[in-house]
Amino acid sequence: MKLRRREFLHLTASAGTALLAPQVARAQAYPSRPVRLVVGFTPGGAVDIIARLIGQALSERLGKPFVIENRPGAATNLATESVVRAPADGYTLLMANTAAAINATLYDKLSFNFVRDIAPVAGVMRGGYVAQVHPSFPAKTLPEFIAYAKANPGTINMGSAGSGASDHMAGELFKMMTGVNLVHVPYRGAAPALADLIGGQVQVMFGSLPPSIEYIRSGKLRGLAVTTSTRSDALPELPTVSDFVPGYEASGWYGVCAPSRTPVEIVDKLNQEINAALADPKLKARFAELGGAALPGSPADFAKLIADETEKWGKVVRAANIKPE
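-> structure tokens emitted (325 positions)
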């Protein structure tokens, strides 16, 4: 018996709806229990703070706790690996940041491939660094700093949170694009590096904005320029590095990822809820206090950012021959 066209289309649509129904039901039921958001840093740092802000927002929106789990070690690789190996059910997520893109090239024996083994869910925040010097340093502007560094090669110490850390990479990119010779002095974390910059033991640092802002405002440090492509609302008086070094840009990004096989409907639901949270003026204002801005977009947008950043920092790691500590 032949089916008329209308009957055929009706049956086809019904079959498609039946296939889709379990996926829709799964997304609607998620989350039914607490969700872990793994952070590769100790409590209190920028990544941890941002994770707690977005975790709280998701808890309020979805009605289940998003519990922050701090798993520091191996430059965030321990945290990433724990999420890569977790069940792909949406109940174990990663608060990823720029370190993941750097580590893809910095470490040649990782047990995972970040781009392949992680499903990008949503960007959360993007913020920059600030080129800053001790107040006693002769240069008062970035052009003066570049001129001084070229006239005195190998005499300026550049502090960082460690070899391959994001602030180190911002400094190495600056060195590559300006041709200056700065001596890298790695520390075990940003806090001791910043302390020695304030104390005058190192002369320059491409520091993260949040811990640097108050020292610059109080005059304990002199800000020269921010590393983002546009000026920072937190330090609007400072120019950008790209004003004097065309094409320069270095920023830290933060976002939520899941194991690669996580169902797309769960990824999409999380993406929608994160984007809705990022539209909240209160959260935007909190990010501005941290020297950053909300980073909304689709999972595909976040995937492209990760791929682009992995390629960008991979070139810097190879060109500067940077090795992990």
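The domain at 128-243 is CATH 3.40.190.10 (D-Maltodextrin-Binding Protein; domain 2).
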